[in-house]
Amino acid sequence: MREIKKSFCYSALLLLLVLFASCSSEKTKVYKKTPVDEFITKYLDEPNFSVILADMDYKEEDKSYYHKYRVLIEKPQVKVDASTLNDSTKVADDVKVIDTEWRKVSDIFFDSNINNLGMTIVSKKNGVVDKETSPAGYDNYVGNERYGSWRTNSSGGSFWAFYGQYHFMSSLFYGSSHRYYRSDYRNYDTNYRGKTGYYGSGTNKYGTTSTTNTKSSWNSKPNTFKSKVRNSVSKSATASRSKSYNSSSKTQRNSSRYSNSSSSRSRSGGFGK
Q1: Are 37 and 70 in contact (CB under 8 A)?
Q2: Calpha distance 70→76 (Å, rounded)
Q3: Cβ-count burial of 106 within 10 angstroms (0-12 exposed, 13-18 middle, 19+ buried)?
Q4: For residue 179, what are the contacts with CB-CB under 8 A and spacing of at least 6?
Q5: How many Cα atoms within 13 Å fall on the side-chain side of residue 234?
Q6: How many Å apart are CA 214 and CA 220, to the nearest integer?
Q7: Which among 230, 225, 241 has a CA at the least distance from the CA of 108?
Q8: Residue 58: strand, helix, or coil
Q9: Could you give the CA distance from residue 174 to residue 29 in angstroms, rounded to a whole number?
Q10: Strand partners, 71
Q11: Which class for 222: exposed (0-12), middle (13-18), buried (19 or more C-beta within 10 A)?
Q12: Is residue 110 a contact partner of residue 238, using CB atoms and an 8 Å limit?
């Protein structure tokens, strides 16, 4: 009798270990970090940085989705003699620019950012992280007197102009011919910053379908290809989200069942009483 009871206890313990390993595996799948989370962790010690979604692609041969990112990190400011500045391109020493290689991303993350090409998808300003999407440059550079100033055009409109040593930022964002108007920026800074995504006051002004994204390989693709990818990733991401939800629910049910079972045994006084 004692041997049977011992064997039963061993089998029950083994079953619980298998269930625990299964639940742990499911949790790992459900809570996998996104590239945004990875950037936040990687640049944890940086008080100011921006991550721009620079390009995206889909590889039909392995049915995989890819992103490229551009990271800007602010460093301690270097004093420059204003008399030496001009409008020519000159890379400043206090802004580090990192262009990543192609990175494979999940269908869910690709679908979530399908409209964010050329946008800042995560930034940090004075130690505060902002995961809301914004036009590249709006988060840390436009409106920041360290990098430029507001000027007035011939018709009285106010626009942002980078100082000479930061003129290169124009090409990093939307090109030197692009104008950031003060009214548009003020709308973002007052009503959207840190609250919700902002794509400009005009229709498709910023984002994937905007004419500002002329340099990306994505927008050199045929419209038929882009439309096909949009449709396929939407379906794939929906299925993946459903699978993750079901795995999470199953994990919770298993955990609840184990908890209830343990409580029941505790109240009954355990085995062999």
Answers
A1: no
A2: 20
A3: middle
A4: 159, 160
A5: 8
A6: 8
A7: 241
A8: strand
A9: 37
A10: 51, 98
A11: exposed
A12: no
Cα–Cα dist 45/7, whole Å: 54
H-type alpha helices, 123-222: 168-173, 182-191
The pLDDT tens digits along the chain (273 residues) read: 555 555 555 555 555 555 555 555 444 445 578 999 999 999 999 999 999 999 999 999 999 999 999 999 998 876 666 556 554 445 577 899 999 999 999 999 999 999 999 999 999 999 999 999 999 999 999 999 999 999 998 888 899 999 998 999 988 999 888 899 999 999 999 999 999 999 998 777 899 988 877 778 998 999 999 999 999 999 999 999 988 765 555 545 555 554 544 444 444 444 343
Residue 175's contacts (CB-CB under 8 Å, 6 or more residues apart) are: 212, 214, 215
Residue 169 identity: M
- Please give, one letter per residue, the 3-state secondary structure of 163-189: CHHHCHHHHHHCCCCCCCEHHHHHHHH
Q: Which of 58, 89, 54, 86 has the alpha carbon at shortest distance from 68?
A: 54
DSSP SS3 for 96:
strand
220 has which bridge partners?
none
Nearest CA among 111, 62, 103, 67 for reference residue 236: 111
DSSP β-bridge partners for residue 64: 59
